């Protein structure tokens, strides 16, 4: 059976952690930061986990991501 292909766009946006959960960067942190509150900017730091509703679709796109 041939190897499965990884969706390269998804591979650039999602990483799996040690427990197998998929992590992704947060949106709304690129520009126009001056009008966003400090609390909002602070909470946009770091990564977020992919939601349960999207997990099945993402597993199909990233077959070798732990």
UniProtKB/TrEMBL annotation:
Q: Name one GO molecular function term.
A: structural constituent of ribosome
Bias (Basic residues) = 10-44
Q: Which UniProt keywords apply?
A: Ribonucleoprotein, Ribosomal protein
Q: Which GO terms describe its cellular component?
A: cytosolic large ribosomal subunit
Q: Which Pfam families match?
A: Ribosomal_L35p
Family designation: Belongs to the bacterial ribosomal protein bL35 family.
Supply the name of the protein: Large ribosomal subunit protein bL35
The organism of origin for this protein: Candidatus Amphirhobacter heronislandensis
Gene name, please?
rpmI
């Amino acid at each position: 059976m041939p190897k499965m292909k990884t969706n390269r766009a998804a591979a650039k946006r999602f990483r799996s952690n040690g427990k197998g959960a998929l992590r992704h960067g947060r949106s709304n942190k690129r520009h126009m930061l001056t009008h966003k509150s400090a609390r909002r900017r602070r909470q946009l730091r770091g990564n977020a986990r992919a939601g349960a509703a999207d997990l099945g679709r993402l597993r199909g796109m990233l077959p070798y991501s732990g």
